[in-house]
């Protein structure tokens, strides 16, 4: 999980691409954000700027160390943002004094809990300002939160998290400063000691109780531990990390687990109960996804829908195979086994799935399935005859199977061998019947094309069986 330097530039470029995609598809191109003088806001601004957004950076000090504001101004100038400034200290003092009418302690005492409450008021005052400015400029509020803060619950609900969060997947100990340096953030800022600037006490790390590096390493260890042993409780998981007698690591682990446990609700906000009519959420979400949500966001969901629509279709195909006492073999190029994996997820799949030939490269289509190399050379792998021969080749080599589904196409994002992205041929060969090939032109990013291909192949399989059943005496 800890990304090496060689991967980080790629991650940064991919984030910029996503921000370009969102800007072009969502019809919004202005972002406002608070520039604290810290590295998260500076990196967020740098990525947005690189992606062609109009970026308005606001310095909004509230009884602030002037050095932080200076760094915020410097970052705005260096990154070419439009800079605006409003000192909110007077407003803050006023609201705290007014809140003292409800609870005198908030205005007068210096306890940690009260400092946290006052700190949250500061964060929320800034957010009121930023949302007003977003409306003024027909823009959105950029969020500056990162993955480390997400796990630690180290942000203020409805305070410093806005509409679009470009750096939320990045860790603070390494990826955020590395990318900040790579994307031109001033050195003074990416080297600055992380602080919430809310007057709660110490820097971020003093408040959280461990350094960001310890936090990130520990959280990754816990996540990997859980991936290997999904059944473990938090206590068992901690023991599985085999920390032994290292007292510092034990204390750090205790701190990390305590913070994760006490902040899970912030990561699920707002809490959605398991309402008796909760399927309404899904229906509304499906409507948004299908009709309104920009494709750049839909792409990630396309293949993760195995538990939804694709799996339902795969279950239907498995049922149809079982009812007609047939077994399936697949021959897959662009989907590289995903079609078979989908059928493998159906209940009772071992009774109906023979296996899969994953023939991604052209030579394997010839070697493993017997598709003539001359045919591929002359026509490219993206041709109906190739799909037909992949299907019949698979059927010949899997004597216990009676249905073969074959897929060959250009997943994208660009053209290949002169064929456009999204061009896909799907072949179906049922033993004793003529093979059949369909041509498709799918639209979208590679993941969407693959998901659409799997969906179409499952449909073709179902149709082929139904039509054959109809012909049976
Ligand atoms: N079980 C539950 N289910 C649903 N909601 C629950 C809940 N328990 C509490 N809540 C709600 O959560 C609230 C507590 O959360 P919240 O209001 O956010 O406040 P809280 O997490 O207590 O404090 C904010 C923390 O974030 C830090 N921070 C803030 C801003 C910026 C930065 C930075 O460095 O970037 C850091 C700050 O230093 C402080 O440690 C409760 O008042 C309550 O409304
Ligand atoms: N003085 C400020 N002016 C404008 N925005 C601010 C200010 N202080 C905080 N913010 C906003 O709140 C967010 C969280 O605050 P925080 O102090 O954690 O800054 P940061 O950019 O995350 O940097 P770091 O945590 O490294 O100091 C900031 O990213 C920024 O958008």
TrEMBL record:
Molecular function GO terms recorded: ATP binding; glutaminase activity; NAD+ synthase (glutamine-hydrolyzing) activity; NAD+ synthase activity
- Has UniProt tagged this entry with the keyword Transit peptide? no
Q: Which InterPro entries match?
A: CinA-like_C, CinA_C, NAD/GMP_synthase, NAD_synthase, Rossmann-like_a/b/a_fold
- Residue ranges of domain CinA C-terminal in the record: 311-460
Pathway the protein acts in: Cofactor biosynthesis; NAD(+) biosynthesis
The alphabetical list of record keywords is: ATP-binding, Ligase, NAD, Nucleotide-binding
Q: Catalytic activity, per the record?
A: deamido-NAD(+) + NH4(+) + ATP = AMP + diphosphate + NAD(+) + H(+)
Chain ranges of the NAD/GMP synthase domain: 14-269
Q: Which Pfam families match?
A: CinA (PF02464), NAD_synthase (PF02540)
Which GO CC terms are listed, alphabetically? cytoplasm
Q: What is its EC number?
A: 6.3.1.5
Family under the similarity heading: Belongs to the NAD synthetase family.
What protein name is recorded for this chain? NH(3)-dependent NAD(+) synthetase
Coding gene? nadE
